[in-house]
């Protein structure tokens, strides 16, 4: 994702890459950020020191791990620098800290930076509200074998949106996989099923199953470039916001 973001920035005329960060002792440290990202030589070596690059009018774009993201969030909050976070897998304690840090600087947290996915999240909420309890809801997500969290943050975002449309609490009705003789499906459950295989970039299918018909919404990401372009657009938007916690729904004006 770091390489994809570098390429997206290079393709955007009104922003400039001023720093590229990797983990301490990472193999990319000291190498040219453009060359390792296949974006052309930039004479910008990869560093592990985020703070040195934070200056007025800068925005951080972060795709790392939950623990690393919190480290960068703390630095950004201290410097009052806006930060876009595309990391998933935060636990409730970490989310609480993110909300606290967002009081000091603009923070955009989104499980998926794709514009299409975020539009779909808005759509399925409205569909669920109109269809009501007579349709069963199943969410199937597929990602590469290296993804560490399941279900995906995007699937959870879709589940929460659908639960909101149905006036349910996802934590109370979510089903994560099935095994054995489970009995008849309840009318209120929302299933989130995960597939991990090969190099799948990201695929999400939402099924509204009724008696006699089935409605499906599918989003497929063909490359990580779509997430990078969305993150850059989010950064451009976030640069002009006040401290607070935002998401891609805010960027797209869907709230």
CATH architecture of the largest domain: 3-Layer(aba) Sandwich
CATH top level assignment of the largest domain: Alpha Beta
CATH topology of the largest domain: Rossmann fold
Shape: elongated
**What's the CATH superfamily of the largest domain, by name?**
NAD(P)-binding Rossmann-like Domain
Describe this structure in a few short sentences:
With 255 residues, the chain is of the alpha/beta class. The protein has helices spanning 2-10, 33-36, 66-79, 92-101, 115-131, 153-165, 170-173, 225-238, 248-251, and strands spanning 60-62, 83-85, 106-109, 136-143, 174-175, 190-196, 202-210, 213-221, 244-246.
Structural descriptors:
Rossmann fold, 19% strand, 5-stranded mixed beta sheet, 9 helices, Dihydrodipicolinate Reductase, domain 2, alpha/beta, 9 strands
Task: Tell me what you see in this structure.
The structure is a single chain. By secondary structure, this protein is α/β, with parallel strands linked by helices. The chain folds into 2 domains: 2-113 and 224-251, Rossmann fold; 115-221, Dihydrodipicolinate Reductase, domain 2. It contains 9 helices and 9 strands. It has helices at residues 2-10, 33-36, 66-79, 92-101, 115-131, 153-165, 170-173, 225-238, 248-251; strands at residues 60-62, 83-85, 106-109, 136-143, 174-175, 190-196, 202-210, 213-221, 244-246. The strands form 2 sheets. Strands 5-6-4-7-8 form a 5-stranded mixed β-sheet. Strands 1-2-3-9 form a 4-stranded parallel β-sheet, with helices on both faces. The protein starts with a helix and ends with a helix.
């Amino acid at each position: 994702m770091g390489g994809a973001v570098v390429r997206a920035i290079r393709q955007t005329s009104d922003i400039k890459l001023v720093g590229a960060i990797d983990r301490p002792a990472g193999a990319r440290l000291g190498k040219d950020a453009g060359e390792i990202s296949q974006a052309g030589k930039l004479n910008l070596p990869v560093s592990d020191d985020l703070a040195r690059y934070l200056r007025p009018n800068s925005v951080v774009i972060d795709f790392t791990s939950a623990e690393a993201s919190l480290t960068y969030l703390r630095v950004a909050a201290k410097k009052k620098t806006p930060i876009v976070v595309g990391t998933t897998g935060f636990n409730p304690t970490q989310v609480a800290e993110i909300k606290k840090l967002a009081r000091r600087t603009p923070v955009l947290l989104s499980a998926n930076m794709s514009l299409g996915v975020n539009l779909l999240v808005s759509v399925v909420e409205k569909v669920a509200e109109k269809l009501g309890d007579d349709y069963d809801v199943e969410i199937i997500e597929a990602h590469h074998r290296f993804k560490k969290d399941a279900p995906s943050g995007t699937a959870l975002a879709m589940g929460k949106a659908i639960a909101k449309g149905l006036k349910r609490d996802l934590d109370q009705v979510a089903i994560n996989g099935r095994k054995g003789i489970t009995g008849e499906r309840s009318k209120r459950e929302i299933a989130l099923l995960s597939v991990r295989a090969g190099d799948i970039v990201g695929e999400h299918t939402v099924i509204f199953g009724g008696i006699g018909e089935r409605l499906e919404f599918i989003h497929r990401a063909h490359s990580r470039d779509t997430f990078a372009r969305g993150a850059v657009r989010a950064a451009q938007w976030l640069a002009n916001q006040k401290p607070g916690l935002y998401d891609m729904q805010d960027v797209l004006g869907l709230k």
